[in-house]
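#struct-pred
JK: can someone run the complex with flavin mononucleotide? inputs below
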Amino acid sequence: MKALSITKTIQNRRATPPRLFSKTEIEKEMIEQLLENANWAPNHKKTEPWRFVVYTGEAKNTLAKNCEQILTKAQADGYPVVTEKIEKFVSTLQRVPVAIAIVLQVDRGQRLPEWEEVAAVSMAVQNMWLTATEMGLGAFWATPGFLNLFSEILGLEEGQKALGFFYVGEIMMDYPSPGRGDVAQKVVWK
Ligand SMILES: Cc1cc2nc3c(=O)[nH]c(=O)nc-3n(C[C@H](O)[C@H](O)[C@H](O)COP(=O)(O)O)c2cc1C
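RT: done, structure tokens with the ligand placed:
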């Protein structure tokens, strides 16, 4: 079998913890390429259900501050979130150069089960992730349990749901791969 460069990119893709990102800003052109490639993900009935809100610089710092306020208030009102989680989430938002909110737009005609739309958005995220890998950038998909508290601050509209944040940055230090179990254990050949 001829060696495929995509195999190397797939295996090199890492969920790099954002604490290993440098604070160096990422060129807008590179972020645009990530988004362009995301937009080429497969999707059923041409719904193209991925939406993104890109935060960098001051907008990202403001988002961090607003999220902190929302979480602190929710906690005071009895929402089950521990202070360390709030601190970690907010400090991550402050430190990463790029935070992209991943948003699902549910099909207005409701022609598809939601899982198909989630699958399409996930494929768009994988496109971004592989592209970042080829660019030599680190990336991470964070899905904190309190995401639904941020609908308003993210400017989400009717039928939109946040599926997490995609963080991107230059890598200061490589993170080891957790590897994968043998694919043969997950496949049945008939
Ligand atoms: C939908 C999705 C959500 C994830 N959310 C988180 C998360 O909230 N926190 C986290 O530490 N890792 C999260 N991850 C990353 C996984 O931890 C990571 O992919 C796994 O450890 C395997 O590492 P690798 O991707 O470098 O091979 C998420 C991955 C996916 C696909």
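RT: quick notes.
Helices lie at 5-12, 28-38, 57-76, 83-95, 114-134.
The first strand starts at residue 50 and ends at 56.
JK: thanks, will look after standup
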